[in-house]
C-alpha cells in the first residue's frame, strides 16, 4: 500500500512539474521572452498559483490512463494552450489585445492572420511541431508502460476531475470568487491586454468565458420598454420624394495628415478634404482598432452599441440569429430597395446570412460582381463605384445601398510599392526619422488613399449627373494597422500608450463625410457609429424604430453624441438613466421579445432575398475557330468573375469572359454538349447556376 501511495505521489508531482513548464512556455511565447515569463511567475506568485491550480487539476485527470496513454494525451492536451499562446501573441502585436473566447467563432477572419506570419516564423513553427512529434514518438517507444493502474491512482484522477469541473464552473461564470479574491485575479473588461499581463494567458482567457453568454437585465419587461418609449418623441416628416441613400464603409479609411509630425509631398485626400469643407463632415467614433470591421458595420446598420455587449464579441457571429429591426428593413418599409455590396466573399463574417436578417433585398458579394478590378490581394474601389452606379441607374425606386470596400485592406508592405505610388513622407521631429519599414508602410497606405479619393470624386461626379436626389455617407470602419505594435503611430509620436481618454479617441475615430445634392447643409458631425443611423434617418425624413428614435432625441437634446468605452463613458457626461435606457432598448431589440416592435411581420426577411441580382442565364452558344483552335463561345446574362463553365458535367477553364460572354476551349468532340454556368464561392460551394443549354455538334 505504501508503494502505491509513493508511486501516486511521484506521478502527481511529475504532473505538477509538467504544468509549471507548460505555464512557463505559454507565458514565454505570449510575453516574447523567457526573462519576462520568469519575472511574471516570480513577481506575480498568486496569479501564477491560480493558473497552476486550474491546469494541475485538468492534467491530473489524465492520470486515469496507463503511462504511455498518459504521455500521449498530455502532449495532445498541451497543444491547445500552445496555440492559444501563439495566437494571442500574434493578435497582441496586430490588434493590441490577446485572443478572447468569441475569437474561436471567428474562423473566416482568423485564417487571414496567416498574412502576418513571416516565412521564417512559419518555418520555425513547422520545425518545432515536427520536433515535438518526434520527441513524443521517441518517449512513447522508450518509456516502459505501466503494467496496471492502481485504485488510488484512479481515485485521485476522478477526484481531480470533480474538482476541475466544479472549479471551472465557478471560475468561468462568476466575476468574484474565493480563489480570485485570494489570488489577486481581476478582469479589466476595457483593457484585455493588461488583464492578461497581470493574470496570465490561461486565467485571462478563462475569465472571459462569460463573453459567450448574455444575462437578462433585472428590470427588463414589457412595461419598462413601454415607459421608455412613452417619454421618447417620435419624429414626424412630410411625405416627400425620398432620396437615394448610399452608405460607403471604406476599409481602414483614415486621414494620415492627422500625423502632425509627418510631412507629405502632396495631400493624399484632396477631394475628400474639399468635400468636408463644402458639405457635412467630421469624425466618427468607432468601436474597434485595426480590424473587426463587422462591429463598426453592425453599429452603423442597427444603432446598437457594441460597448454594451461582451468585450471581444462579434454580433454578426454571435448574436444576429433572427430578424432584427435595422436600416435595411426600415428603408424597405418606406418603399426603398435595400442592396448590400461587398468586394469580398459572401461567407465572411456570415454576411450572407446576417444581411438577410437585417432586411436587405439582395447581397452583391464578390462572387456576383461581373469584372472585379484587382489591386494586389484585394479589389480596387473602382469596382465598388461601378456597382453602386449600376444599381442607381437601374429602375425607378429609391435605393438604399450599403457598400463595404476592400482595396485599403492591410497588411501594408514594409518594402515595395504599388504601380500607382506617388506619396512620399518624412518625419519632421528634430533629430528623428522614420525607420525604412515605417516609411514604406505609411507611403503604401497613403498611395491607396489617393486611388480611393479619385473613386470618391468619380462617384460624386456621376451622381450629380443622374439628377436624382442622393445622400452619400462615407466613413472608415477603423484606423489602419500601420505595422506591428503601432509602429508608424509610435514613430510619428501619435500614439504613446498613455491610456488617456483623448488618446483613445484619436485611435478610435475615423473621418466622416455626409454629402447630398439638395440640402445645402454644412454641419460639423462628431458622432459615434451607433448614433449615425438616427442622424441619417432624420436627415432624409424616414421614421426609424424605438432605439433610433430614442438616440435621436438624446442627440438633439445635446446629451448624446457617441457611446465610448465603458471606463470612459463618464467623460462623455451621459446620464446613468440614459445609459440604462439604451441598454434595455438594445437588449429588447437583439435578445429580448422585441416589445418595442409593434408589428413584427414588418421585420421579417424579404422572401426573395438572394445573392446577386439574378442567376446566370445562357441564351446562345456557338463554336468559333481562333488560330486553329476551336473555342466554345457562351452568350447570356449575369455572368460574373466567379462563373464556371461545365460541359457534360466536366469543368472547363475559361479563356476569357465578361457579364455577357464566356469563352472556353472546345471539349473533345462529342455528339452533344450540355452546357451549364455555375457561380461558385472560394469554398467550391455552388451558389446558383444557369439553365442547361444544349449544342448539337
Automatic annotation (TrEMBL):
It holds the Pfam family Sulfatase. It is a multi-pass membrane protein. Keywords: Cell membrane, Coiled coil, Membrane, Transmembrane, Transmembrane helix. It comes from the Bacteria. Residues 442-469 form a coiled coil. InterPro entries: Alkaline_phosphatase_core_sf, OpgB/LTA_synthase_biosynth, Sulfatase_N. GO terms for cellular component: plasma membrane. Residues 243-521 form the Sulfatase N-terminal domain. This is Sulfatase.
Amino acid at each position: 500500500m505504501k508503494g502505491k501511495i509513493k508511486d501516486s505521489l511521484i506521478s502527481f508531482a511529475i504532473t505538477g512539474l509538467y504544468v509549471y513548464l507548460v505555464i512557463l512556455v505559454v507565458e514565454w511565447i505570449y510575453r516574447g521572452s523567457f526573462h519576462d515569463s520568469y519575472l511574471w511567475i516570480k513577481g506575480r506568485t498568486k496569479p501564477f498559483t491560480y493558473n497552476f491550480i486550474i491546469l494541475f487539476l485538468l492534467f491530473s485527470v489524465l492520470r486515469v490512463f496507463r503511462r504511455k496513454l498518459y504521455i500521449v494525451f498530455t502532449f495532445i492536451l498541451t497543444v491547445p494552450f500552445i496555440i492559444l499562446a501563439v495566437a494571442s501573441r500574434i493578435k497582441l502585436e496586430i490588434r493590441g489585445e490577446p485572443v478572447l473566447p468569441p475569437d474561436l467563432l471567428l474562423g473566416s477572419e482568423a485564417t487571414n492572420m496567416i498574412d502576418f506570419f513571416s516565412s521564417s516564423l512559419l518555418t520555425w513553427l513547422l520545425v518545432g511541431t515536427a520536433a515535438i512529434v518526434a520527441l513524443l514518438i521517441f518517449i512513447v517507444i522508450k518509456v516502459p508502460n505501466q503494467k496496471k493502474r492502481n485504485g488510488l491512482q484512479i481515485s485521485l484522477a476522478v477526484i481531480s476531475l470533480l474538482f476541475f469541473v466544479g472549479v471551472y464552473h465557478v471560475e468561468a461564470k462568476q466575476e468574484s470568487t474565493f480563489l480570485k479574491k485570494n489570488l489577486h485575479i481581476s478582469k479589466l473588461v476595457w483593457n484585455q491586454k493588461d488583464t492578461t499581463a497581470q493574470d496570465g494567458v490561461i486565467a485571462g482567457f478563462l475569465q472571459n468565458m462569460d463573453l459567450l453568454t448574455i444575462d437578462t437585465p433585472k428590470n427588463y419587461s414589457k412595461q419598462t420598454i413601454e415607459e421608455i418609449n412613452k417619454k421618447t418623441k417620435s419624429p414626424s416628416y412630410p411625405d416627400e420624394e425620398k432620396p437615394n441613400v448610399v452608405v460607403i464603409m471604406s476599409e481602414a479609411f483614415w486621414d494620415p495628415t492627422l500625423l502632425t509630425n509627418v510631412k507629405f509631398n502632396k495631400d493624399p485626400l484632396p477631394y475628400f478634404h474639399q468635400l468636408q469643407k463644402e458639405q457635412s463632415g467630421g469624425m466618427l467614433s468607432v468601436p474597434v482598432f485595426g480590424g473587426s470591421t463587422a462591429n463598426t458595420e453592425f453599429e452603423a446598420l442597427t444603432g446598437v452599441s457594441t460597448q454594451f455587449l461582451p468585450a471581444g464579441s462579434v454580433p454578426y457571429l454571435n448574436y444576429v440569429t433572427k430578424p432584427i429591426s435595422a436600416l435595411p428593413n426600415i428603408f424597405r418599409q418606406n418603399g426603398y430597395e435595400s442592396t448590400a455590396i461587398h468586394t469580398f466573399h459572401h461567407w465572411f463574417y456570415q454576411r450572407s446570412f446576417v444581411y438577410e436578417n437585417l432586411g436587405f433585398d439582395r447581397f452583391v458579394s464578390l462572387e456576383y460582381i461581373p469584372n472585379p478590378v484587382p489591386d494586389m490581394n484585394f479589389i480596387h474601389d473602382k469596382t465598388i463605384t461601378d456597382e453602386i452606379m449600376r444599381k442607381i441607374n437601374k429602375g425607378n425606386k429609391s435605393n438604399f445601398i450599403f457598400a463595404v470596400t476592400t482595396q485599403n485592406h492591410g497588411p501594408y508592405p514594409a518594402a515595395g510599392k504599388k504601380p500607382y505610388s506617388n506619396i512620399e513622407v518624412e518625419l519632421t521631429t528634430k533629430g528623428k526619422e522614420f525607420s525604412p519599414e515605417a516609411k514604406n508602410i505609411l507611403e503604401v497606405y497613403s498611395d491607396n488613399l489617393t486611388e480611393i479619393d479619385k473613386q470618391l470624386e468619380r462617384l460624386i461626379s456621376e451622381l450629380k449627373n443622374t439628377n436624382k436626389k442622393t445622400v452619400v455617407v462615407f466613413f472608415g470602419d477603423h484606423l489602419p494597422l500601420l505595422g506591428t505594435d503601432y509602429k508608424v503611430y509610435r514613430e510619428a509620436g501619435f500614439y504613446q500608450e498613455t491610456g488617456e481618454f483623448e488618446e483613445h479617441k484619436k485611435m478610435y475615430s475615423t473621418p466622416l463625410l455626409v454629402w447630398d445634392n439638395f440640402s445645402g447643409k454644412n454641419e460639423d458631425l462628431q458622432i459615434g457609429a451607433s448614433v449615425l443611423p438616427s442622424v441619417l434617418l432624420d436627415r432624409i425624413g424616414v421614421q426609424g424604430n424605438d432605439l433610433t428614435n430614442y438616440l435621436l432625441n438624446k442627440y438633439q437634446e445635446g446629451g448624446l453624441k457617441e457611446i465610448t468605452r465603458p471606463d470612459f463613458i463618464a467623460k462623455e457626461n451621459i446620464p446613468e438613466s440614459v445609459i440604462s435606457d439604451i441598454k434595455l432598448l438594445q437588449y429588447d431589440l437583439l435578445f429580448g421579445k422585441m416589445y418595442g416592435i409593434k408589428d413584427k411581420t414588418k421585420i421579417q426577411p424579404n422572401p426573395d432575398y438572394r445573392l446577386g441580382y439574378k442567376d446566370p442565364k445562357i441564351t446562345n452558344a456557338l463554336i468559333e475557330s481562333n488560330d486553329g483552335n476551336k473555342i466554345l463561345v457562351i452568350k447570356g446574362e449575369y455572368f460574373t468573375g466567379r462563373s464556371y463553365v461545365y460541359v457534360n458535367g466536366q469543368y472547363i477553364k475559361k479563356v476569357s469572359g465578361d457579364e455577357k460572354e464566356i469563352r472556353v476551349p472546345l471539349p473533345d468532340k462529342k455528339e452533344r454538349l450540355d452546357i451549364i454556368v455555375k457561380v461558385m464561392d472560394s469554398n467550391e460551394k455552388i451558389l446558383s447556376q444557369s439553365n442547361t443549354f444544349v449544342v448539337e455538334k
